[in-house]
Design goal:
The protein is mainly β. Helices cover 6% and strands 40% of the residues. The protein has 1 helix and 28 strands. A hairpin with a 4-residue loop joins strand 8 and strand 9. The termini are far apart. The relative contact order is 0.12.
């Protein structure tokens, strides 16, 4: 399918989705004594968003929102939109699956078979298999630790660490990483790295590796595309078929459609807000919020969410939730 035809199909779906979402919709209830929650949606039809398939969302220190899409990167400062593509910038590939912002404000874009592109606001540098130690040009996730090391999930080739000069790759042949297909990375308060893979979760403390899977732990499923760590140090793992697993370092708990208010078991994104609420982006079912006791689900029939396919979540300094979907971007203010 050509890119032009795909964009036409996505545009038609977005129009239909937005139109249907307004019909028979039950408004989200306001908090007692507080303002009514508000939604805003940005698509290629009503904004400068470059493409409605949004895979990644990141927010920099100035509050700019960065959206990685099927056809480039869009930056939104709250008023103006700027798009970066291979045709007008140093971006290595237009399909952007991961974004991270380092302590110096540099943006790091993980692309589909173009490697990693770094943007300092003026200059671009691309790291790929031909000019660096990156072992694979498909980069699905990026995390940055307290020492400013960049960690890249190099699709089928494990994980690479870049300290600004040197590259180190960890794979199943030279480390305790359980699988070379890594989809998610998170760094906890003690500096341990957690890698979500196709065969379980691997924890790395800089020296030793520990793997958790369905055979040796309470992990609900081995396919782990999302990880988040809360203020208490609990790890939350999203899965494709079995909901969410929570690990406190000793005990495990699983939340799925059979025992909780989770809307669907396909959890592709997780974010945690300043109040400790967990937000789960679900493919095909919207977003489920969990406050530790109660569950609320937002979808396109009951809220202003543009589509039920939610692939990325970021939360800004004002507490606004930004949902990257397969129909555009929805912003939610409670």
């Amino acid at each position: 399918m050509s890119e032009r035809l795909l964009k036409l199909i996505l545009t038609i779906l977005a129009i239909v989705g937005v139109a249907l979402a307004g019909c028979g919709k039950t408004p989200t209830k306001p908090k007692p004594g507080g303002p009514e929650p508000t939604w805003a949606t940005y698509t290629t039809l009503n904004s400068g968003l470059v493409n409605d398939y949004v895979y990644a969302v990141a927010i920099d220190a100035q509050g700019n929102k960065w959206f990685g899409t099927y056809n480039g990167v869009s930056k939104f400062d709250g008023t103006n939109w700027t798009t970066y593509k291979t045709s007008n910038s140093g971006l290595a590939n237009n399909q952007v699956y991961a974004i991270a912002v380092d302590a110096s404000g540099n943006k790091w874009f993980g692309t589909y078979y173009g490697g990693v592109s770094k943007f300092d606001g003026t200059n671009w540098i691309t790291y790929n298999t031909s000019n660096s130690g990156l072992p694979d040009n498909g980069v699905l996730a990026i995390a940055i630790d307290a020492q400013d090391n960049k960690w890249f999930a190099a699709e089928f080739s494990g994980v690479s660490r870049f300290d600004g000069t040197n590259w180190t790759t960890y794979n199943t042949s030279n480390s305790g990483l359980v699988s070379n297909f890594v989809m998610a990375i998170a760094v906890d308060a003690s500096g341990k790295k957690w890698f979500g893979t196709s065969d379980g979760v691997s924890e790395f403390d800089g020296t030793s590796w520990t793997t958790y899977d369905t055979l040796n732990s309470g992990l609900a499923e081995n396919h782990v595309p999302a990880i988040a760590i809360d203020a208490s140090g609990n790890k939350w793992f999203g899965s494709r078929l079995a909901g969410v697993s929570k690990f406190d370092g000793t005990s495990w708990a699983v939340y799925d459609t059979s025992n909780s208010g989770l809307a669907d078991n396909y959890v592709d994104a997780i974010a945690i807000d300043a109040s400790g609420n967990k937000w789960f982006g679900i493919m095909g079912a919207g977003v489920s919020k969990f406050d530790g006791t109660n569950w609320i689900t937002y979808n396109w029939t009951t809220s202003g969410l543009v589509t039920n396919d939610v692939a990325a979540i970021a939360i800004d300094a004002s507490g606004n939730k930004w949902f990257g979907t397969h129909g555009g971007v929805s912003k939610f203010h409670e």
